[in-house]
Each structure stands twice: as structure tokens, then as C-alpha cells.
Amino acid sequence: AQTVTQSQPEMSVQEAETVTLSCTYDTSENNYYLFWYKQPPSRQMILVIRQEAYKQQNATENRFSVNFQKAAKSFSLKISDSQLGDTAMYFCAFKTEAQKLVFGQGTRLTINP
Amino acid sequence: NAGVTQTPKFRILKIGQSMTLQCTQDMNHNYMYWYRQDPGMGLKLIYYSVGAGITDKGEVPNGYNVSRSTTEDFPLRLELAAPSQTSVYFCASSSSRRGKETQYFGPGTRLLVL
After folding, report:
1. Alpha-carbon separation of residue B93 from B16, B22, B25, B84 (angstroms)
2. Contact by Cβ (8 Å): B103, B89
3. Hey, which residues 85-114 in chain B have their CB within 8 Å of chain A?
4. Ordered DSSP codes for A46-87
5. Cα–Cα nearest to B6, from B109, B81, B112
6. Which chain B residues are within 8 Å of A104, Cβ to Cβ?
7. Least confident range of A21-30, A67-76, B50-59, B98-107
8. Whether B32 contacts B2, CB under 8 Å
9. What's the mean pLDDT in B76-101?
10. Per-residue pLDDT tens for A37-90?
11. Sheet holding B19-25, edge to edge
12. How far is residue A105's CA from residue A41's CA, in Å, rounded to a whole number?
């Protein structure tokens, strides 16, 4: 069975700092997708970034980038120049070949002014 | 384009009551999903559908039923509600086209069973 592990239940940084959230996963599949979702207090699930496993190049979206290490089954999220609006729960998710999403337990990120 | 909509936003049920959570998407997505999120946890898949008339169980299907009669709608039925079903329920949809597999989520339905 596929599993996703986020080892940091909570993190806190100062505004404008860079922060990295960790995620590891376990799968025997070769073709899959990885995602980071943000969940602010409104509870809306918002896609932050996605990565296709067959692409070696790390995905970037403005201040958000990933470090995808396929052999190590690691998928960390880096947030540069963090902003107060980045405060949220962050979930790492793995999409199976059967089109199901498997979520980690989340990391609560707080950006302090 | 409203995306994924869910109703109601919040509901209180008594033990043993039944209800249907509604989910509609206007993106013509083939795939639709129901998740539940317990406090402090990630989302767990309840049921999913790859197209009208086709549904399958996810990780935590007990106590729930679904149907998919149209591409747009994917209602979730709770029979004989139990306190263990107190949770936030999210509906999501995605395309089956390669490169368009991102799941888009509705705003959630908060359910309290007392």
C-alpha cells in the first residue's frame, strides 16, 4: 500500500525567511504524481504545486519549489520569502495509477510577523 | 465556472439519522471523489467514480453509499449516522486527460453527529 509521511507536525518561521517542508512516500509504482496542497483556516484545499514522477526537473511556482528525489522517494516543498498569507496546513499527496490521492498527515506552518 | 460546489456547508445530525451530501462540478471531469478529514489529520478517500454509472470503494467506505448518474453530480449518502462520522467531508474532481490530473476540491461540508 502507498503511504505518505510528513515528519514535521508543526513549523514556525519569521516573515521573509525560507522554509522547507519534508515529505517522503512509499510506492512500487513507476508512473505517479506528487502534489502539495495548502489548507488555510477556511479549510479550502488549494493546490500549491505538482510534480510528475517521470520529469527529472523540479517544479517551481513563483515562491514555491520542490526538491524531488525519486530514488529516495522524497518530495520536499521550499517556500521562499515567506509571507503571512502562507500560514496554513500543508499536505503532501501522492496520486496512484488508479487515480486515487493518498495524503500525509500535514504540517502546520506559521509565519510570524 | 463555479468549479466544485458542495451543499450543505454545515449540518448537525442525531445518531441514526440519514442524510445526503451533495456535490456538483461544472468542469466536465470524469473523475470524482469523496474524502473525509478528521481533526488534525489528512484526507482519507471514502469513494470515487471514474465516470457516470461507475463507482468504487476507497480507504474508508463503511457507513456510506454513493451513486453517479450524471457526469456533474456525485452525492454521498450517510445511512444510520454515528458519532464516528463526525468529520469534514470534501468532494473533488479531476480530468482523465494526461497532464490534467490535478484534483480540484469543493469547500467542504462540516458534519456533526450527536
Report:
1. 29, 13, 7, 25
2. no
3. 88, 90, 92, 94, 96, 101-105, 107-108, 110
4. EEEEEEETT--SPPEETTEEEEEETTTTEEEEEE-S--GGG-
5. B109
6. 42
7. B98-107
8. no
9. 90
10. 999 998 999 999 999 888 889 999 999 999 999 999 999 999 999 999 999 999
11. B4-7, B19-25, B76-78, B64-66
12. 16
Give the distance from residue A19's alpha carbon to the nearest chain B alpha carbon, in angstroms: 21
Q: Which helix (H) or strand (E) holds B55?
A: strand B54-57
Judged by CB atoms closer than 8 Å, whether chains meet at A44 and B107 is answered as yes
* Residue partners of A111: CB distance under 8 A and separation at least 6: A12, A13, A14, A15, A82, A83, A84, A85, A86, A87
pLDDT (0 to 100) of residue A58: 94
Nearest to A105 among B41, B88, B92 (CB): B41
Residues forming beta bridges with residue B9, ordered by sequence position: none
Q: Which residue, A103, A88, A85, is CA-closest to A38?
A: A88
CA distances from B36 to A104, B61, B105 (A): 13, 10, 12
Of the CA atoms within 13 Å of residue B87, those in its CB half-sphere come to: 20
The DSSP call for residue B53 is T
